[in-house]
Design brief:
The structure holds two protein chains of two kinds. In chain A, helix 8 packs across helix 9. In chain A, a hairpin with a 5-residue loop joins strand 24 and strand 25. The longest helix of chain A has 17 residues. In chain A, the strands form five sheets. Chain A has a ten-stranded mixed sheet with strand order 1-10-9-6-2-3-4-5-24-25. An eight-stranded mixed sheet of chain A has the order 14-13-12-11-15-18-22-23, with helices on both faces. Chain A is of the alpha/beta class. Chain B is of the alpha/beta class. The chains are: A alpha/beta, B alpha/beta. Chains A and B meet through helix 15 of A and strand 3 and helix 1 of B.
Chain lengths: ~525, ~400
Amino acid sequence: MKNAVGREIPEELLVNGKEAYQGRFYRDGKYYTKASPKVRIYEAQDTNKMCADIHDALVRCNIKDGMTVSFHHHFREGDYVMQMVMDEIAKMGIKDITIAASSIANSQAFLVDYIEQGIVTGIQTSGIRGKLGEAISHGKLKTPVILRSHGGRVRAIEEGDVHIDIAFIGASTSDVTGNASGKGGKSDCGMLAYSVVDSKYADHVVVITDTIVPTPNFPASIQGIDVDCVVKVDKVGDPALIVSNAVRFTTDPKELAMAQNCAKVMAATPYFKDGFSFQTGGGGSSLAVNRFLEPLMLERGIKMGWALGGISAPMVDLLEKGLVGAIVDTQAFDDKSIESVNSTPRHFEISTSQYANPANKGAFVSRLDFGILGALEVDTDFNVNVVVGSDGVLRGAPGGHPDIGAGSKCTIVVTPAVRKRMPIICDRVISVTTPGECVDVVVTDHGIAVNPRRQDIIGWLDEAGVPHVPIEALRDYAYEVTGHPDPIEWGDKVVAIQEARDGTILDVIREVKPTILH
Amino acid sequence: MNPVKAASAGVIKSGDAVITVEPGNGNLEITIASKVTAMFGRQIRNTVEDVLKQYDVTSAKVKVDDRMALDYAIRARLECALFRSFGDDAVYPWKAAPTIATRKKPVRFRLRRSMMFLSAQKISQLQDPGIYGEDSLIIDLEDAVAVGEKDAARLSMYHAVSGNRYGNLEVVVRINGLTTPFWREDVRACVAAGVDAIRIPKCETVADVRAVEAAIEEDEKALGICVGRTLIMAALESPLGIINAYPIACCSERLLGITVSGGDLRRTLQARTTASGIELLYARQAVVYAARAAGVQCFDTVFVNLEDMDGFARETQMIRDMGFDGKSIVNPKQIETVHNIFTPTSKEIEGAAELIHALKEQRDKGVGVFVINGKMFDIANLPGAERTIELAKACGVYKEDL
């Protein structure tokens, strides 16, 4: 059946209560009962949770064929934990494992082998990239990948859509009872926000660290009372690769112009008042918006109430200048923000549930005034794709994109209209990651377009003298530059299911047809 | 014509395509590899077949390794590879670009605060004309293009400029010097593409300008283009060139202006590069004097240290004070500084408008000289004030009627 964004959802997926996407806020006001884990009692005195190695931990947690295991991605491209655990699982002859990760990095391409050997038969994640994305897009994984936003993952775990048998939590530091944190140690990643929900809902929880510290390791993101095993290894990750690509302070006049226009759009709305809240993404233009906000804030004599993140240096700078009341953070992208969350009082670590869970009593994204996002594609309905590349291959992640889109009062996508021969503004996105009703404004290097659903924003921009054009004009420009593209041809097999935040199905992605050399 | 040997063009870089052509087995074998095959594979194939048909190629093996190149780039690379494969005697049949009919005719005197250099060798850089707001584009076929790539650069320039996207952005092309074997074919390519002006590097004498003029006229006639259309700019890069600035500035109706080109000049002068620019003082003044006496425009040389924006601003202010009309730049981030310095401030505009009104008033009263705010003004100040208003209008900062 066709869902609310016009995507065809195969009937065979709409079973066991699974629905097609009905529109945002569809489940607002409804009740549900949370799922719960099976918990082993540790009543005896002074139980030793320290395992000799990962093998020992797997045995203690009763690893079996067909289980679901989970991992976080706080160590990004420098993560060693997923491979250490999966290598051991493979060695033990275990198979049919489902991996429920918060995201998967390029460096985890080793999974392709385990997929081919049938050791991994299911994956649930935000991001799929590189060789793994290619393998999955060519139909190698036994079951379709389930793609969820950060908020959607938390909801799925708390509602019981996903049942995690064993959660593996890589920690920068831990004490022997399992109080674990992302701070300190050899691989400081700032926080362990993504694993909090795993620690509360998995049947078994294993903390893996390279730095044991004296008890109690407080403040702890992961509580020892939720942890079964602690394993000490040589290294949990490579610190050099844990930080994202060094923060790019763009000097490209095109990107700076887009950032400046984005700030102008923000300032034209009544949301831009003292105490406003703000979240920005990681691209060059998005980060540069911070720079243009500063003079506007000073001009109006207003301050930002709180910033939400994924945080990198420019936002920390604003905090240090006293222009931001507080930062609430789920992920530290660079050294400066890792250091800041460690030491700055008003830079707080929050869990991903507090960040973006759509099924709790109000996450931070639902209070957001402004959200600045990127895009691989935007279509004339304002739907955004950040997951599927121009060749039909999985190479991205929803991340917080759909959450910010749904929650923020003014969601602005900043993107060039064309990237080389890829028309970013198009007729119809290859796949919907964030529905058009959640995207309010698109700022490109060839003009600004406002979603017709937001006549109020159109009015504010007109009043402020900020020019804008219909999104069709931007699409026409893009096609003029690149030529009009042909639609991608797909195979029959569904290789990925894009879930909306609320668990309904937003879109499906099929396998690519093998490349025909023309 | 068919390929007689293997040849290729293009490099592995985003926005480019490596195209290889080999003699065929009596038919056409085309293979295309591209990240955008799904969306644009058919269109790329159509372009390749189109070009092969245009040159009556019936037997060839063509391999396209595309890196998200736009259509103009694929055409340019394919034509380059083809003509390389046709053998050393092959002559490219330049045709007048159809867009010449629809583009605005070249304008001799216009706003040229910023003239931005782009290398024709970096084919993807030609894809976004005017997006940075530069007043003029200088596409370089000379020093920024390797000796072995001059043929490729011509084709890249031709296909980019003759596509539909250049609109009315002024395009100047710097051809190779008159002592090289390349310049004559460069002129043909420029005239065919419909560029606004040809920039002559290392121009030293009136004879240099005449030679280029004659070539342009020959090509305009041969290609059926309005004779006189293509303008000329002379870059003075040597002591002799600077000494001949005035005769050069006077010698052609096509000549829009002259420029100082510092790099080569400093070398031949055996001078050093200083922060104050004293080594170029005479050259700069000579160019301004010559241009004003001849009634043409004058432009200053490039500033290559992209990190020293303060030094760049100081130099730009200095040459503005000296009387230059604009400056050559090498990077989009330099545009804002140049435009800020060359655009009249509101104070200057107000002063000029006030002066023009006052002069009119006083003239009506029969008064020749008068005082405003302690300064003396007379009719001699009128052209300067009018120029300020004209410049302000051109920059888009003055919209009233004067």
